[in-house]
Records
---
Amino acid sequence: MSQRILVVDDDKEIVRIVRAYLEKAGYSVLIAYDGETALHILRSDRPDLIVLDLMLPDRDGWDITRIVRGDASLAATPIVMLTARVEGEDRVMGLDIGADDYIPKPFNPHEVVARVRAVLRRTHQDFGLAHIIQIGQLLLDADRHEVQIAGKPIELTPTEFDLLKTLMEYPGHAFTRQALIEKGLGFAYEGMERTLDSHIRNLRRKIEPDATEPLYIRTVFGVGYRMVGPE
């Protein structure tokens, strides 16, 4: 069965274009033109990924993202934001509340397909593999797609999980931002390094006892990031 993508945008022409390219790439596409319909489809059909416009006539993309990330049954659903709002603060806010990727309009439909494919590949690549990594009190189970800190479950977005997994697989290794993006996310594009910093900030907020003095994800100044165990 092909993977199902929910495309949410109030511009019917954009929906038509994105749907056509995704279906050509082999995906099944569900569509919604407003937030309430999108939430109904999410709960009833459980799509594999959401391509979500930020500006909608009722609930906006930020609101929908918060609802998805706050619902245990939906929280692992990847979200790719597709929006005309490209200001830096809007982009960071979208990532801070749990979006996995952010594509500004106008866009290249081929790029949308490539981003969707990359996010889905990251989300599903470890299915069925017993793979547990532990560093200090931080434990990651790739088979169950779960993370715990001191035995307490931590909710991560798919992108946060993939970045953390990559860092934990190579403890002590200093990743450049570009290398961490390519190794952890499977793609790179202009401006992604700033996006990476937002994801790392979110990870620290969730796994570190004190995000301002990280024990696990350390900054390597002038280079990028590395994973270390508490001393």
---
Amino acid sequence: MAQSPHIFDVTEQNFEQEVLLASQHTPILLDFWAAWCGPCRQLMPTLEKLAIEFGGAFRLGKVDTDQQTQVAAAFGIRSLPTVVLMKNGQVADHFMGAQPERTVRELLARQQILAGVAPTPIAAGAPTEDPMIEADVDVDAKIAALKATLAESPDKEETAIELAELLVRVGEKDEATQLLDGLKTQAESDGARRVRALLGFVRQLEHAPDPDSLQQRVARNPADLEALHLLGVFLLLAGQEQSALDHFLTVMRLDRKFGEDLGRKSLIDAFRLVTDADLVGDYRRRMSSLLF
């Protein structure tokens, strides 16, 4: 095997941590091979070369099917070599046979894996402004108008909820909290619960490390639950909802006791913010499968 931190042997013992969990943050290219397989020996140098060339944008996990029979069986391997790309704990792509380098590069390009650029949970193009605020909205003017309406009609709690959400999104957390605490008839409405969930996530990041530091922690230890959770919060507030839900689900799966079941609680709060009903339904089912 070529000596590289981007290449490792997959075993039944390290599969969960080094493949399933690690692929939440860095794609894992699995090479299913055997010592007696001639085409495997042809393909292997190509995969190793690309793993080194791409500099950590993906990791190459080598699976000796004669030694790691349970791993091979889990993927239903019937032909060697077989190459499987894992992303977010799931199979994202694959091919069989000793394909030319061009084919491997096409797979990596298809999955948006760029040479020399290790992908991160929070994409380089993540919005710096709140994705839930329309670009053409004058937020300050909108806040001023809502405050004027509320001053004239203090009993309009729907207005108070709308104002509280905007205040959270521009960083005025204390003022938003006061509005939410003053609710009476709408205190338990869906709108109020949504804003409280948003406020809770924002407050969790008040003293959090920056995303790059958190990603480095997870790279060193894919079971760092605090880092996984905080990355999920960053992702959610950046509008990358599915990735955020994946992070919270991973925390829940790894340790229900962490943060008093923080993974499950975060999923429930995130469901209040995610507008894609199909996505929410999918992750509700996944969450339920871990409960029973």
---
Amino acid sequence: MRTLENALRRVGFVHVAGVDEVGRGCLAGPVVAAAVVLHPDRPIPGVCDSKLVPAIQRERLYDRILKSAAAWSVAAVDPTEIDRINIHQASLQAMQHAVMALAPLPDIVLVDAFRIPNLPMAQRAVLHGDRRCSAIAAASIVAKVTRDRQMLELHGRDPRYGFDRHKGYATAEHLIAVARFGYSDVHRRSFRPPTLFDTID
């Protein structure tokens, strides 16, 4: 998975960042993006798409990434802003903020599927990047663990919705809770939740 990053380093790009976001399809909670520059001499075995890694292993990899990476950062956009600008723009904004918070700034940015507007450095959109590029996979793990921890905090404040289990996604349990209690302050009001019949189909 480091082939693309290594190829870019060979042609002169020193700091190669991977960027990814999580929480795009949720009914509640923020969208969170991470940017990671992996150190070329500190490989991290097991780094792959966060969706393919069990939660316990994600936590271990998260710690290793933060200790071994040359640079990393996270950024989030909250539900109120998501409702104001829409989820696509919020995802791009979170990724742009994560990249610009890196120190030093990267020479090139590899992004999972999208191009990020208003970046002052080169970038490349990589289709299925979280499965093809180590830096993007590392970013997906950092973003996922960060957001999951935030959802656990939200669950602690209001346990009615079960955020500790579904992390804000539109599960049957979540939809039942929304039907019973209505939206909370951390729900995205611009999202039309599916019906229970949609989830069964």
